[in-house]
Request: fold
Amino acid sequence: MAKSYYNVIEVLVNICAVDQGKLKIFLKHKQNEPYKGYWLLPGNILSNDQTLEESADNTVVMSTNFPNVFLIEGKNFSNLDRDPLERIIACSFTSITVKSLVHNPEMQWFDIDELPKMAYDHEIIAKANIEELKKQIISNKNNILYKIFPNDFTLSELQQFFENILNRPLDRRNFRKKLIDSKTVIETGDKINTAGRPSKLYMFNKGGKQNE
Amino acid sequence: MAKSYYNVIEVLVNICAVDQGKLKIFLKHKQNEPYKGYWLLPGNILSNDQTLEESADNTVVMSTNFPNVFLIEGKNFSNLDRDPLERIIACSFTSITVKSLVHNPEMQWFDIDELPKMAYDHEIIAKANIEELKKQIISNKNNILYKIFPNDFTLSELQQFFENILNRPLDRRNFRKKLIDSKTVIETGDKINTAGRPSKLYMFNKGGKQNE
DNA sequence: ACAAAAGTGTTGCTGTTACACCCATGG
DNA sequence: CCATGGGTGTAACAGCAACACTTTTGT
Reply:
């Protein structure tokens, strides 16, 4: 390959959502060689008339049919051999969506702890983005919790979600106290029936506590 | 300009150091139009046989004559009109060096709070990188303090540095207590004479407290 | 002796952790 | 009435903030 100052850039997007208290990622099934049958982060090759963010947004729309206004910038991956055929630089992003609204026959949701065989270096890219996403969730940076939970939920569900992310059990009383006292969540007034005592429903406070 | 999937990428590096308790950045004087006389972040156009990190490292070596092993990945800047002549994507990095060791007639150190007129969007890029650098300093991510202060220093100097970064006064006793009790710094055993009582010298503990 | 900067402890506050029992519903 | 999950308070602890006087040197 001749030396050149022109580069091919692909913008790869980690489309994530929460389902049943677990973080999920939306991956694309690769239909052709190489890596046929493996899974891919959805993405596009960047053209010279769009910004990285525009390209990422296009990918989200193509994958989910929803426009997305919230993108987290991830890292770049520029190893020379990440695609053996051609030198392609990857710029990664993470976006948040709502799993139940999204349908795409070419794609499938995976639990972030049970990623399938992924093509190229996409598993490394996915894991790097997921780690950053977890950090932002834990600190509620940019009110990201509101984006993940736009609707109501029970505190038990939310606690399960945090226990999965932190990978350790949390004390129910302390967990509730912190969120309620800090006005991070507010009661909707509704309840939902479960196997035991009905559970109060909460929502994230749009203008509530967050970092930066 | 014809639509294309090939892109020009420049890798821009914020070369930073501490001097007299203040964060400084090393900028290049632009010698030709456009923006003649303005100042630039040093950088290179990426060729398709190098990674982004290699290109950033080359820039550091060319600017400072020192190899650099420590680079912080910054954001990308891909607005279509950031260079009015051509669409160039900027990938930014931050590196840390020691000001007193570096000489380069085409470049000059500036206090981060007194940046000169900068070409293109380089001021925006510099400020974004400086903000991230400050955050990493405050949390001592990757033992960055050891990289900024590879040699001995007095706690008063260090306190001044933090007061500049945080832009607020700190209590001397609390500041010292925290650093000493946590073993973040250790006494060298030496002292240095000042206008008043001689001051103990400290060094950062290489294996000391840090985040991630 | 005095000026200049370094060095040093204690107290209160705030947020976090640990911990166990009662409540509301469905079957 | 029992099984299931939801809801609640208090006490110890750690980290952080506020605060003033003494020590060591040079002149």
Remarks:
- Helices of chain A lie at 52-64, 122-139, 144-148, 155-166, 172-181.
- Chain A is about 25% helix and 30% strand.
